[in-house]
Amino acid sequence: MRLTRILLMVGLLWSGASFADPPRGYPFLGYDAGLKAARESGKPIFLYFGRYGCAWCDHTNKKTFSDAALKKLYMQNYVLVYVDAESGKRLTLPSGERITEAELGVRLQAFATPLFVYLTPAGDKIVQIPGFKTVQDFRDYDRYVRGGHYKDQTLMEFLGAKS
């Protein structure tokens, strides 16, 4: 009887869990391969920090990254990199230092997921944005990054000036 209850509880917990891998249909790369591809192409990097069981990542994938126009925009203009914020998988920073994906998350203060980080093709951070975002938010971030506005104003200044 007790074993049945335990199995039932585990089953209920598992069935209600969210699974948050990168959005389907997007060509996300690992960190090292993405950095190499960005250097070769000259495209900025869109780094997606997610983790297993992240309900907001799952929500973002379903509500935002399912938009076909956004998918096309980001696939054409960014090298897409996915990092699991809790993974022990090793990566190499532009400095040559080797750390785990989880350690990169700590350095970027990715204490909640999803976290989106835009990087230059050389791997320098442009801006990082936490939490669920809409399709329009990602279009605005694209204009900020690819328009080079980050060179002379913060994202908040840019967003405050748009209209």
From TrEMBL:
InterPro entries linked to this entry: Thioredoxin-like_sf
Signal peptide boundaries: 1-20
UniProt entry tagged with the keyword Signal: yes
Coiled coil regions in record: none
Keywords: Signal
SUPFAM superfamilies for this protein: Thioredoxin-like
A Pfam family: Thioredoxin_7
Name of the molecule in the record: Thioredoxin-related protein
